[in-house]
Write a structure and sequence with these properties.
The protein has 15 helices and 14 strands. It is an alpha/beta fold. GO terms for molecular function: histone deacetylase activity. This is Histone deacetylase domain-containing protein.
Length: 574
């Protein structure tokens, strides 16, 4: 099994995965309860947590997660922890706006009963996207507090990794909430209020200063984590200029902006990585002003090389020229440790192309960069709105649940190699909840936590050789799929030319990549050395998996990185 695992796995003695939440996260109401036949609710609503945590059908209550430690009593994040990241004026404004709203829970009424005569309104809109209610501020503090507790748990060794199933989300929340950019000068909160992952990262640097020197934040939500990026940029002192205009004159004001977490070394000690969609909402809008995919920021960039030469701007440019690959916009470098991977609209030329591009972005750019950074703690902003069935992504990424399991598994391997497996993951986006516990969102979150749990059982190290082999396997498969599609297209044209009609069966673009969940193949069936035994109908590459020096220990399923390369549904024959 070691040959397909990408390295030997050692049993882990530390505590298993913890799943944290808080009841107040369900009292952040964004709409009144809807009934059959009513309009659709806003994407971010309380049902997102219900499909994960409700008894008995919440996906995280399934038997496979019986080993996990559940907790729902996190403390509020303290004001001191919050204002390391956010301005007090912004926090006070949020607190004040929530305080004047009608509190259903306080007077015993419910949203279904309506608002009593003379009472305040139950909801307020911060912008076109984001709604708050009476207990939203408290819910946001508990959400941030849950992530802080997650940091405490992994640092104490109580749990090897943690998943925080909380809301409201936070990765679009900057120092003062809304973050603007050149493509969107108004911006929006994007459902986010307090930057949970940023608050936790600052807490880790400040409280565990003797043990947490470096923190890596990895965001795989389909939307750029612009709020978290601004928080990281604020670790470097900058100046802000304001212009005040009156009918008689205008006045310019210049102020300094700096939000350190610990000291002046913060910029070199924090790495922020975001993989996301970047570009226009559709190809037809490419030359039309505006219409950017939210939030309109996140063009591809890598941090300066410096003492971190393993991934350079040239690496990203090389990735841009890869077959069926490519990352949007240009590479730039600045003095912050920020790595943005802006992925364009998913092409439908060959099925699986977008998924391969996402994975190759991690294999060739992101994972080597994190390894070179060598963090003491990894925080994950886990957004599942890149799933192909989530309408909010406008066709960007087009991932499936196995991809979220794969990327989580790879990040755990990096954590095993760098920081004794310490990973804290916090829920961000993911809104495809139709179907409840069998919805795309539920299955994606389930796959993510499954990878965390598997990572708490066995400590598999990161192996760049295996990533290279796995990438070649997928590329070879895509090459063959493209050849079959071209052959099919030629046959179709010949049928049209000769008047024979069109055979629509077995469309070539329905051929899947050999990417699958780790549960689809058992260790006992995997070869120890050499080329993996691919399912019938799958095209085998010329190269073999790199042989590991020592066999893996333990039983169970092969991790997602191995299974993604050695099993899947058989390819449709052309």
């Amino acid at each position: 099994a070691a040959a397909v695992n990408g390295g030997a796995a050692a049993p882990v003695a530390e505590g298993r995965t913890a799943i944290l939440s808080h009841p107040l996260c369900r009292e952040h109401f964004t709409c009144a309860p809807l009934h059959h036949g009513s309009a659709d609710p806003p994407p971010e609503n309380v049902n997102r947590l219900k499909v994960l945590l409700d008894y008995p059908n919440g996906v995280l209550r399934a038997g496979e997660f019986a080993e996990c430690e559940f907790s729902d009593d996190a403390q509020r994040a303290s004001l001191g922890d919050v204002v390391r990241v956010h301005d007090w004026a912004y926090v006070r404004n949020l607190q004040t706006k929530c305080a004047v709203l009608h509190d259903f829970c306080a007077d015993g009424s419910t949203p279904e009963m309506g608002v009593p005569v003379g009472a305040q309104m139950p909801f307020a809109h911060l912008d076109g996207d984001t709604v708050i209610s009476a207990r939203t501020y408290e819910a946001a503090l508990r959400a941030a507090g849950s992530v802080i507790e997650g940091v405490d748990r992994v640092m104490s060794g109580r749990n090897r990794n943690v998943f925080c199933a909380v809301r409201p989300p936070g990765h679009h929340a900057g120092m003062r909430g809304v973050v603007t950019n050149d493509n969107d000068d108004s911006g929006s909160h994007g459902f986010c209020l307090l930057n949970n992952v940023g608050i936790a990262a600052a807490y880790a640097r400040h409280v565990y200063r003797g043990r947490v020197d470096k923190v890596a934040i990895v965001d795989f939500d389909v939307h750029h984590g612009n709020g978290t990026e601004e928080v990281v940029r604020n670790l470097v002192p900058t100046h802000e200029e304001y212009e005040m205009k009156t009918p008689m004159a205008s006045v310019s004001m210049r102020t300094e902006k700096w939000k350190p977490w610990l000291n002046e070394e913060d910029p070199d000690k924090v790495l922020f990585v975001s993989s996301h969609g970047y570009g226009k909402k559709s190809e037809e809008l490419e030359h039309v002003p505006g219409h950017w995919f939210y939030p309109g920021s996140g063009s591809t960039c890598v941090p300066p090389g410096g003492s971190d030469p393993s991934t350079t701007p040239e690496d990203v440019r090389a990735a841009e020229s890869d077959y069926l690959g490519g990352y949007e916009s240009e590479t730039r470098a600045d003095k912050h440790r920020i790595l943005d991977l802006g992925l364009g609209l998913a092409t439908r030329e060959v099925s699986g192309t977008a998924r391969n591009r996402f994975r190759d972005g991690y294999r060739k750019v992101i994972l080597p960069r994190i390894m070179a950074f060598n963090p003491d703690l990894i925080l994950i902003s886990a957004g599942f709105d890149g799933h192909k069935k989530d309408d909010i992504n406008f066709g960007y990424l087009s991932l499936v649940e196995e991809d979220f399991e794969w990327v989580t598994d790879e990040l755990i391997k990096v954590a095993n190699s760098c920081c004794e497996g310490r990973v804290v993951s916090v829920l961000e986006g993911g809104y495809a909840i139709k179907g409840a516990h069998v919805s795309a969102f539920a299955r994606s979150a389930q796959a993510h936590v499954r990878a965390l749990l598997n990572g708490s059982r066995f400590a598999r190290p990161y192996d760049q050789r295996y990533c290279e082999w796995e990438s070649k396997l997928e590329r070879d498969f895509l090459e063959k799929a493209k050849e079959r599609q071209e052959r099919k297209n030629k046959e179709t044209l010949m049928q049209l030319y000769h008047g024979g009609g069109i055979d629509t069966g077995g469309a070539a673009n329905d051929v899947p990549l050999p990417l699958a969940s780790p549960s689809s193949i058992d260790v006992a069936t995997a070869p120890m050395l050499g080329t993996p035994q691919l399912p019938v109908g799958t095209i085998a590459p010329d190269s073999a998996a790199p042989a590991a020096e020592t066999p893996a220990t333990g039983g169970g399923a092969v991790p997602a990185s191995a299974a993604s390369a050695v099993s899947a549904a058989s390819a449709a024959s052309a």
